[in-house]
Amino acid sequence: MSLAILQATDADAVDAVIDAGRFSATRGWVPATSGNFSARAQDGRIAITASGVDKGALSAADVLRIALDAPPPAGSSAETALHLALYRRDAAIGGIVHIHSPHATVLSRRRGAAGEILLENYELLKAFAGIRTHATRLAVPIFPNSQDIGALADQIDRRLDAGTAAPGYLLAGHGLYAWGATMRDALRHAEAFEFLFGCELVGAAA
Ligand SMILES: [Zn+2]
């Protein structure tokens, strides 16, 4: 696994994307070719999965290399724009994971009307970069799902401008976006979110 690599080169970024897809497929987070993954190399270029490919069986040919400010090339997923918007707004983001994981999908539907999910007093909150204690309150924004990605990107930008500590957000009935300084961080965040969303679901059922 090369997830520990800080994506120094284009090739490292491509490898990080391929490994992230494989890992996520083993977890059942990317059913039926869903989800997408991207990593930023030190030269600023983005490696990102092409549309419609099995994320558990990626090869380098399934990973597009794009410039941050150029229009996405043919073969890009519609959701590429959501990845690029995050990279543009925060130079500290090095990896982004978008998954259609079960707990994120179900909980985002149940709590969509509230506009966010509050995670607090979980030990696993310490999995998120910069959090040192369970005595933390993390609000994860939820946006209504939309096929109008441009409008969605604007809405997400406005909400993130207003401030959020969570390295992720939910699209209701759709899935999770999570990010980090490296792909390894983004995957750890995604795994922590998915576990904590599961806890919220079990707690709500009790
Ligand atoms: Zn999606």
Fold and architecture overview:
The protein has 206 residues and is of the alpha+beta class. The protein has helices spanning 10-26, 80-89, 102-110, 149-161, 183-205; strands spanning 36-40, 46-49, 63-66, 95-99, 116-120, 137-143, 168-171, 175-180. Strands 3-2-1-4-8-7-6-5 form an 8-stranded mixed beta sheet, sandwiched between helices. Helix 4 links the parallel strand 6 and strand 7 (168-171). Helix 2 (80-89) packs parallel to helix 4 (149-161) and helix 3 (102-110) crosses helix 5. The N and C termini lie far apart (38 Å). The structure holds zinc ion (ZN). Residues 34, 79, 98, 100, 174-175 line the site of zinc ion.
List keywords for this structure.
single chain; 206 residues; alpha+beta; eight-stranded mixed sheet; 5 helices; disordered N terminus; binds zinc ion
